[in-house]
Design a protein that fits this description.
Layout lengths: L1 H13 L8 H5 L5 H32 L11 H15 L7 H27 L7 H23 L2 H11 L8 H28 L3 H6 L4 H23 L5 H12 L5 H26 L3 H21 L1
Length: 312
């Protein structure tokens, strides 16, 4: 059913826009071929984001055993955004080819998210209650937001415009070269995620039991760091900080199917993530609202309901 819904959402997304396109526009050099290519890039970008963001949220939630753990809540996305802001504001004077510029954009986001995840894992051993990590992530997010605001205050007009467009989550502006880099990084992150699922099953049963099963907890920690950094930072680099999806999708998946079966949960997360991101892309195109506004309007009420339900 999810696969059928995804196909329907992709078809609707390809046919959503100011102009009506025919099938010939997607495969032939017609007058509307460039518009068809832009819509195809938009669909592919949402597909990759739907694979990456829920997987990163799923890995962090299972590792920290906290349903609110996510790259955006823990401050990973904010620090990645800060590094992207530094790159955008201070690279305007550099003349770089598009491919190199996209590469440095992704490298800066990955460096920021990796740095934040390493700091989180270092502090996790000091906090008895892992919920303190949420508070720590919130404080780091606030600090990163303050620095970004300071950079915006002193930025030139063109740099400021580029950063604002990036922060809106403009999924319709992802180029073919950016898609290639995004696909390579997401593919690497998914491969590392695949290797971390089996150790996570043992980790969920407790440290002592995991060690008795031969789970290398240090290796698992590094797998989680690298995988979530690649997945969240790659999407953040090219599509802006897509918020709350990494929390909401794993929650829906656990509600729909047995949460103890992590392999099935991972697959369900990716399918639901693709469907939700393609749907939000359609809504964004119709309403002309930025993608991040839509994800926030959807995610905040759902997280509040999760907290109320958990308290009850």
């Amino acid at each position: 059913m999810l696969l059928a819904a995804i196909i329907i959402a992709i078809v609707i997304s390809l046919n959503t826009g100011f102009l009506s396109l025919s099938l010939n526009d997607f495969f032939s050099e017609t007058a509307n071929h460039q518009i068809a290519q832009l819509r195809t890039n938009r669909v592919l970008a949402m597909l990759l984001a739907g694979l990456a963001i829920p997987t990163a949220g799923f890995l962090l939630q299972e590792y920290f055993q906290n349903p609110l753990a996510d790259s955006s809540v823990l401050g990973v996305t904010s620090v990645a955004s800060l590094c992207v802001a530094f790159f955008i504001f201070f690279s305007q004077s550099l003349v770089l080819p598009e491919f190199l510029q996209n590469g440095f954009l992704s490298i800066s986001a990955i460096a920021g998210s990796t740095l934040m995840l390493v700091v989180l894992l270092l502090f996790s051993s000091r906090f008895r209650d892992k919920s303190y990590l949420i508070i720590f992530g919130f404080l780091v997010s606030a600090l990163a937001g303050a620095v970004v605001s300071l950079l915006q205050f002193y930025a030139e007009n063109q740099s400021l415009k580029n950063f604002i467009l990036w922060s809106f989550g403009a999924n319709n502006q992802v180029t073919g070269n950016q898609l290639l880099i995004l696909a390579l990084i997401v593919g690497a992150g998914l491969l590392l995620s695949f290797k971390s699922i089996k150790p996570l099953i043992g980790n969920a049963l407790g440290v002592s039991y995991a060690q008795s099963l031969g789970v290398n907890l240090m290796e698992l920690k590094y797998l989680i760091i690298v995988a979530t950094s690649l997945l969240s930072a790659s999407v953040t680099a090219f599509m802006g900080p897509v918020l709350f999806i990494g929390i909401v999708v794993p929650h829906f998946s656990r509600f729909m199917y047995n949460p103890a079966k992590l392999w099935q949960q991972w697959i369900l997360n990716m399918l639901m993530g693709i469907l939700i991101m393609e749907t939000f892309s359609i809504i964004s195109e119709i309403s002309q609202l930025p993608l991040n506004v839509i994800t926030s309007l959807f995610g905040v009420p759902v997280i509040l309901m999760m907290m109320v339900k958990s308290r009850r």
